[in-house]
Amino acid sequence: xxxxxxxxxxxxxxxxxxxxxxxxxxxxxxxxxxxxxxxxxxxxxxxxxxxxxxxxxxxxxxxxxxxxxxxxxxxxxxxxxxxxxxxxxxxxxxxxxxxxxxxxxxxxxxxxxxxxxxxxxxxxxxxxxxxxxxxxxxxxxxxxxxxxxxxxxxxxxxxx
Length: 160
Known about the structure:
By secondary structure, the protein is mostly helical. The protein is built from one helix and no strands.
């Protein structure tokens, strides 16, 4: 009987150890279930965050494409404006050259005009002098003619 009791005590100890192990296993399972539940929630949150991130990434990609398109349009406008600026500068240089030539021509014409005015004044003075000489010469011819007529009359009177 002692053996039976010893065997019973040993079985009771083993049963108690087994129950303790089962309880520990149940606690571990329960803890694992809680961890699993928490991780499942985190996974779902992460999936929602991932979907939001993908949506945001898609929106940002669309914005980026739109910005790239706008940048391309602005680059084209800048290029066009640069061509216009280059053409305007070239045209301005041509006009400056033409203006310089015109100023030079104007200065030359001014000098020619001044020379012509001086020559004209000299010619007017010369014409005046010649006109005065002609007038004096006309008077002299008239006086010589008078003197000749008088002499012819005196000659005729003397011959008579």
